[in-house]
Amino acid sequence: MSQKTNAVRLIQQAKIPCREAFYQFDEQDLSGIHAAEAIGFPPEQVYKTLVARGSRTGINVFCIPVCFELDLKKAAKAAGDKDMMLIPVKELLNLTGYIRGGCSPVAMKKKYPAYMDETCQLFDEIAVSAGERGHQMILPPLALAEFIEATLVDIIV
Questions:
Q1: CA distances from 136 to 28, 52, 76 (A)
Q2: Cα separations (Å) of 119 from 13, 29, 49, 72, 123?
Q3: Rounded distance, CA 47 to CA 31, Å?
Q4: Can you give the CATH number for the domain in which 53 is found?
Q5: Does the model's pTM come out above 0.70?
């Protein structure tokens, strides 16, 4: 895990301040709460990347704190859709290039509409997956949002 991932490389090329955190992941517990504890960050400051499909808009990407759930009604409204469903895990790799527990909002196979929960503005930095299990990028949330062209919205339960 010492090599730079595409996500980290792209963030660094964009001159966005970024630190990396590595931790031992547990195949039986790929939760964001585990990741937060492992890197010593409050769960509100560690963001998971979820991929969902809208009936009209197709694939959308949502970044929310690991201690919350995605509100699918709010997510659909944010995306301008009538409904939104999380994609099955088996579709994740094909759609994004990432596996469960290592899905980064940066450097996906294709550019999808992105949304970040507005609570990210409360912090100077947040952690998101660097694109592999056991590897987080710690960076300013607004710089990340701008880089992935994310809309800041209220999308959590």
A1: 18, 22, 27
A2: 26, 25, 15, 17, 8
A3: 11
A4: 3.90.960.10
A5: yes
